[in-house]
Design goal:
Distance between the termini: 26 Å
Structural class: alpha/beta
Shape: globular
Radius of gyration: 26 Å
Strand order of the largest sheet: 1-2-7-8-9-10-11
Strand content: 15-25%
Helix content: 40-55%
Length: about 375
């Protein structure tokens, strides 16, 4: 009887020892996580860098070099370009068929391309014609249009011209990817990249793969969405989840800017979600530097935000120019974060240490110990 009691007692001690070891392991993992979580990604939109450089009379590459040297910015945000953006930049000419007929009658605008177009097809006054000089951009726009619209609604008409049947507003708001050369700019300057991808009213797996091109992902660490819905809504979330998981990417979830389907999208990949805080250019015009610095710091300290998308000041009442003023602003934000123990680095430093859920075995061992 005494032997049985001794064996039973030894077995209980053994189980208790296992529970203690598991508890220490869980505590250590939590410590590593808290240490890693002291990183904050300070990001700025590439379009804002271009704007700030133009205000300061610099080339964009020169300003990127300055930002890289300062270590006050760790990532660039690249927004997917809509057709409206590309037309506004002068990279695509969008003409309705009726406009082409008028031009052929009274003007010489695009005479060679339009005359060639008239020879190849009867111009439909209700269709749209996209003239795209850049070959790479032409292929990107064509491929996305083909998988986005009904069969037969996109036709090549030669001279880098596409004939498209679609609603004008829908067409202008469509996203047409992000150029690979732009992404390489971040890498060339030692910065990481965040993709901001436009949602689509009719998402398909083919479209999602074009928007989330895996050739980006040696530089990209986080993907965000803009538009009305989360990308893939309502039935293609799994395709997006698979790409994020396979490439160990984070999903940047904007505070106070909930998209339709965002919660449903985020829940299955909770360990990959990074909270993001940004201030719009319109709001920045009404705020002081002190207010902005305080707001960013509170977002990090109080709400666990780990990506801050900073917006420059342009109405600068100072002896310094816009570039000098904003470089000082970014540096002050970095110092404020450092003073509370946070380090400025991209979220790629989080790695797999964000996945800290208890395993079934750990839960079982801890339960036995109790």
């Amino acid at each position: 009887m005494l032997i049985k009691k001794s064996i039973f007692k030894g077995f209980l001690y053994f189980l208790l020892s296992i529970a203690i070891v598991v508890a220490l392991n869980v505590t250590f993992k939590r410590y590593l996580f808290e240490t890693k979580s002291q990183f904050v990604d300070l990001a700025i939109s590439y379009s804002q860098v271009e704007k700030m450089a133009s205000y300061g009379g610099l080339k964009t590459t020169q300003l990127l070099t300055e930002l890289s040297k300062s270590d006050a910015v760790s990532s660039l945000v690249f927004n997917e370009e809509t057709l409206y953006d590309l037309v506004d930049q002068g990279r695509i000419t969008m003409l309705k068929g009726s406009e082409i007929n008028n031009m052929l009658r009274v003007g010489r605008v695009y005479r060679t391309a339009l005359t060639n177009l008239k020879k190849k097809t009867k111009i439909n006054p209700h269709h749209f014609y996209l003239i795209i000089d850049e070959k790479v951009l032409y292929e990107r726009v064509k491929n996305i249009l083909i998988v986005s619209l009904d069969t037969g609604n996109v036709k090549e008409r030669g001279w880098n011209t596409l004939e498209v049947v679609a609603d004008k507003d829908v067409l202008l708001e469509m996203g047409f990817g992000i150029s690979k050369s732009s992404i390489r700019i971040a890498k060339a300057h030692g910065l990481a990249a965040i993709l901001s991808v436009k949602s689509h009213v009719r998402p398909s797996e083919s479209l999602i793969k074009l928007k989330l091109d895996d050739s980006y992902f040696d530089v990209v660490h986080t993907v965000m969405f803009f538009g009305d819905t989360a990308l893939g809504y309502p039935s293609q979330f799994q395709a997006v989840h698979d790409i994020l998981s396979e490439n160990r990417l984070h999903y940047g979830r904007q505070e106070f800017d909930r998209l339709i389907g965002d919660k449903k999208f985020s829940t299955p990949i909770a360990n990959q979600v990074v909270r993001v805080h940004s201030i719009s250019p319109e709001e920045m015009e009404k705020l002081s530097v002190y207010t902005v610095l305080t707001r960013y710091l509170r977002a990090v300290k109080e709400r666990g935000v780990r990506t801050l998308i900073v917006t420059p000041f342009y109405d600068v009442f100072s002896d310094n120019d816009v570039v000098t003023y904003n470089l000082a602003f970014f540096e002050q934000l970095k110092k404020n974060l450092n003073s509370f123990g946070f380090e400025v680095k991209s979220t790629s430093y989080y790695g797999s240490d964000r996945h800290l859920d208890l395993t079934y075995l750990e839960s079982f061992c801890l339960t036995i110990g109790l």
